């Protein structure tokens, strides 16, 4: 009975009912899109951040001060022994030594073998079996990453291989697969070392700065610069990121027992990273709550006008024996029916918006200010919880926004409600 009465009441002022349903539908669709964006942003930040600094990072104390100079003067030595000890710690899934340094790339000018174009670059080196090689494979534009990470096993000496980002390929004069480049770097002895490399792969890592870099397997750089068993940093990746503080304590104890004067830093100890991520979440969450507040105001105003216009009707129903809880149920049923219609309208729109975010992504401004290299294009991440939260909040907003004006309207005595106005 209440459903039939509520439905008939909604049809009495169709324009208002439609506008309210549209407002709730817009809120539902925006909630879906916002949650898809927030989940995508969280997963992207975690992926990019952890791939660059890990959950825990071990470095030389002096390297912190000189990291911007991309120097290899202060590095972590005897990495193999340290890696074996770290892998014995429960909760550590991967130990990844890396070498990052500045170098110069000489590019021969076409039709002029004596002239060279020189480009300053950042070189990232990584173990062939690490997750970096998988990331390069996923970002491959042309060439083959397998050629890059295959170690020499005797036979005729081959040319060293490197991967370059798409921006680096443009800077090098539309560099192509198989092209020979000369890498010049400074060894720890401050002597300049030069070696020829062949471009084995061109990759697109979704960030302009990363696409300007050069990627070389760790064993190649160690052999070239005589950095046997050394790294500028050792990254630890954990099975459970929530255990970072506990495992960092174990790492500190291990370094002390090995008499290593290196320092370990957990990701959350980087104040700039934490502040940046929290600021982005705060902006997105603010937009999220503004949408809910606007929808609640629209529904509340609509139901307040409905109750005001039907004051006499409320008095008549009360005089006929309707209890207050029956009147509350009737008006709440109207609000929930409007919310249902709004969800039917908002879910397809929200699904379309979420699909676009997942497939096409959205360009973000200000990622160059991040304390780590963030993607310039963010992709959404859609899940069933996006629909559940959107629908749940749509009904909750309708019910809560209706409750206050309805309680006030139904609290009047029948004689006062029936009085002419």
Task: Please explain how this structure is put together.
With 421 residues, the protein is an alpha+beta fold. It is 53% helix and 21% strand. It contains 14 helices and 14 strands. The chain has a six-stranded mixed beta barrel with strand order 3-4-9-6-8-7. Helix 1 (2-12) crosses helix 12. It is elongated, with a radius of gyration of 31 Å.
In short:
This protein is of the alpha+beta class.
Number of strands: 14
User: CA-to-CA gap between the ends?
Assistant: 29 Å
Order of helices and strands: HHEHEHEEHEHEHEEEHEEHEHHHEEHH
Please tell me the overall pLDDT. Answer: 79
**Proportion in helices:** 40-55%
Largest sheet: 6 strands, mixed, barrel
The gross shape turns out to be: elongated
DSSP strand content: 15-25%
Provide a count of the helices.
14
Rg calc: 31 Å
List keywords for this structure.
421 residues, alpha+beta, six-stranded mixed beta barrel, two-stranded antiparallel sheet, 14 helices, 14 strands, 53% helix
Topology (elements, then pairings):
Layout: H1 2-12, H2 14-53, E1 56-59, H3 61-66, E2 76-77, H4 79-87, E3 92-109, E4 112-126, H5 131-138, E5 140-143, H6 145-149, E6 160-165, H7 166-171, E7 180-186, E8 192-203, E9 214-217, H8 218-225, E10 230-231, E11 233-238, H9 244-257, E12 263-266, H10 271-309, H11 311-319, H12 324-359, E13 362-363, E14 377-378, H13 384-410, H14 414-418
Parallel strand pairs: 4-9, 6-8
Antiparallel strand pairs: 1-11, 1-12, 2-10, 3-4, 3-7, 3-11, 5-8, 6-9, 7-8, 13-14
């Amino acid at each position: 009975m209440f459903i039939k009465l509520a439905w008939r009441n909604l049809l009495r002022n169709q324009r208002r009912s439609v506008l309210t349903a549209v407002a709730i539908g817009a809120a539902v669709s925006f909630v879906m899109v916002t949650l898809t964006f927030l989940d995508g942003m969280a997963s992207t930040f975690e992926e990019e951040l952890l791939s660059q600094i890990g959950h825990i990072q071990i470095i030389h104390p002096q390297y912190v001060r000189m990291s911007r100079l991309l120097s290899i003067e202060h590095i972590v030595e005897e990495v193999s022994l340290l890696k074996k000890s770290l892998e014995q710690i429960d909760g550590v899934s991967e130990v990844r030594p890396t070498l990052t340094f500045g170098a110069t790339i000489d590019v021969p000018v076409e039709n002029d073998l004596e002239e060279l174009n020189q480009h300053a670059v950042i070189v990232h080196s990584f173990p062939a079996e690490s997750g970096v090689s998988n990331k390069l494979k996923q970002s491959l534009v042309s060439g083959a990453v397998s050629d890059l990470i295959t170690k020499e096993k005797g036979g005729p000496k081959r040319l060293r291989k490197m991967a370059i980002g798409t921006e680096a390929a443009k800077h090098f004069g539309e560099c192509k697969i198989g092209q020979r480049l000369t890498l010049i770097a400074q060894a720890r002895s401050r002597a300049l070392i030069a070696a020829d490399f062949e471009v084995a792969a061109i990759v697109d890592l979704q960030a302009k700065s990363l696409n300007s870099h050069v990627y070389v397997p760790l064993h190649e750089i160690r052999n070239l610069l005589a950095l046997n068993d050394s790294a500028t940093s050792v990254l630890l990746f954990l099975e459970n990121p929530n255990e970072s503080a506990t495992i960092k304590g174990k790492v500190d104890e291990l370094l002390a027992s090995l008499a290593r004067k290196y320092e370990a830093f957990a990701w959350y100890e980087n104040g700039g990273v934490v502040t940046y991520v929290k600021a982005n979440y705060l902006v997105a969450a603010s937009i999220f709550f503004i949408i809910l507040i606007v929808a609640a105001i629209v529904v509340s105003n609509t139901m307040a006008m409905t109750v005001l216009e039907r004051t006499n009707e409320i008095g008549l129903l009360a005089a006929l024996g309707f209890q207050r809880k029956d009147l509350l149920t009737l008006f709440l049923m109207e609000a929930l029916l409007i919310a249902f219609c709004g969800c039917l309208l908002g879910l397809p729109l929200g699904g379309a918006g979420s699909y676009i975010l997942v497939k096409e992504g959205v360009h973000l401004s200000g990622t160059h200010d991040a304390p780590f290299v963030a993607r310039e294009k963010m992709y959404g991440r859609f899940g069933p919880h996006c629909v559940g939260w959107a629908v749940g909040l749509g009904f909750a907003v309708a019910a809560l926004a209706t409750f206050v004006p309805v309680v006030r309207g139904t609290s009047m005595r029948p004689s006062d409600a029936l009085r002419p106005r």
